[in-house]
User: Fold these one by one.
Assistant:
Number 1:
Amino acid sequence: MRSTKYVVTSQDSDVLPSDIALRIYEIGREINVKETCFGVIIDGEEEDISATVEEVRKMDENNIFIKDRGFPPGDPRRCRAHRGGGARPGFYMMERESDILPLISRGLESEARGEEPPSGVETKRRPSLEELEAMINEEFS
Amino acid sequence: MVKVMVYPPTSMILADLVERKGHEALVVSKEVRKKVVTPGLDSPPLNMTPEDPKKGLKYAAVDVPSGVRGRMSLLGPMIEEAEAAIVIKGDDCTLGCTGCARTNELTRFLLKTKRIPLLELEYPEDEFQAKRFVFKIREFLEGLS
């Protein structure tokens, strides 16, 4: 069965989509590669794709992210060239996640170095009613 | 290898982190792929057959909008297959085809009531949160195997 995947690079990565495409050509499997601004789309037999993905990931382990895609590249049901332009469905999610990819990359780097996560940093949250009441009492009494 | 459902079901970050740890990520694009390669399905951009909303009836009542049932025809089998789940809290990340609030509520509800290992997180907004985000996911996934 054929499989299609996105290979997306984080903004922190030194690897360019063209580097990934060249690496895939070097590997020499029967795979279609489409370069995009965010990475590449690869399409081929499932075994070839999964083996290639592992090798591509090694180029920059913490900055390359891989995602499955339902439609093959250039499918007229999704391709903008056939639909008269505009963002394709699914672009918005990728755009949202691309913003935080550098953060995730740094998290992965820290994990690779064996660092423990910072425990003292609390996630921002709204104070509860009781906490708010206590804060008001403390401030104004 | 454990089948881990990720929510939002189109999330690249979660699917990638799950597969880095050697588990199988259940994402909606794999379900869509099955439909894309099915001959005779030519109704873009809905990619549905008239049978799909009927399948969705298993998860949502007949008076629920057909969009919810249509989405559940894709997500329902994934929920049934899931052995664990990672869920992102907050709806600002559910965009595009995952932007149906009722489907999202129903999906989260079904995952919670399934009584499988479940990790709920929020997307990180700074580097410290990102480190904790990656650490929690790693800890959760290692605990599954």
Number 2:
Amino acid sequence: MTAMPAQSSRPPDATSRPDASMWLLNQVMDHSLDEGYEEAAARRAAAGGNPPRTLRDRVWLAVGLLLAAFVVTAGAAQARAGAPEVAREREELLERVRAGTEGADRLQAEVDGLRDAVAEGRRAALTEEGGERAELVGLLAGAIAVTGPGLELVVDDAEGAGTGSGAGPREGSGFSDTGRVRDRDLQRVVNGLWAAGAEAVAINDRRLTSLSAIRTAGDAVLVDNRPLVPPYTVQAIGDGEALREAFEAGPAGATLRDLRDHFGIRVTTGVRDELRLPAATGATTRYAVPVDPDAAPGDTGTRETDHDTEEDYTP
Amino acid sequence: MIAVLGLVLGIVIGVLTRPVVPTGLEVYLPIAVVAALDAVFGGLRARLDGKFDDKVFVVSFLSNVVVAALIVFLGDQLGVGAQLSVGVVVVFGIRIFSNVTAIRRHVFRA
């Protein structure tokens, strides 16, 4: 066993077989019969012929067979008893998954309904309380749906992007493959639209407010923490034709052209006579409160909150 | 005659009592079954070879089952129980196959 025929340059000697590496398998296959039988047979032969089988021998055999039959039967019974058990557990798990999914769906529907109700109530309150001025504020804040002429941009990933093929200059953090529209592309587009005089902007029917963030998580672009699915439809309300000219003359327009020319990102621009932009959902402030006109600027209130936070972090 | 009685009795006991295998021993039962089958086929082949010995049969059966269970138990303790079970099943499987092949040669002369 010390000789390694595969590596030695010498011709293989008689002891090394061509299937030496299969030693274990050969061993198992050649010695499939228990050696005990051979030895017993040899012993009998040495004692001179086969002695007649005694009752004890027969009982031995019967006990062995009994045990073997019992073990095999017990195994079969166990397997048969276990099969429905496993299937039942699987079914129960599936049932729980289904019930959980249904519950989550129900809750999501409830959340959506309540959110709509809140938005409705806010809109009603705004129109009631403040009249004209409140409507303007709500409109600018994205709290109420708006309609008007404007510009519609459809930005889509390049043909074949997302299949993971082809690395190019646009690889880097975030999206691994090129030809995909990234958060910062959309940010530029939206900034360009604001700069060009847009009065309200929405991406894929998600209204942008002063609190909106366009960012990336994994492979998806998020607007207000909700993932978007390409193509990205950016709608901006403004003076259609003028908006388009201003946008395309600006840096954002140049960026879009670059993306189209170099990375195959598909862009279509269209002036629309009437666009409907929905109200933004869940626009609330937790910390910002209106400044009391009588109080001096730089109220101590901010300092108090600072103090609170510091205390939270004191070990 | 007594042997056949033992065989039938074993099956009957297995069917009737529906033995409840303790949870801890459940994993060893399939191994024990394979070991038992190996002993049975080995004994059958020895019978046909004219080398059968009752005592060797019983002892080989018991030792097969015990050693196989011990190997798997040891593997469980070491965290490689599944792999060792596979090893035991492979070895017994090969042995059963070659024994059945020998039996087939005896019975059908082919």
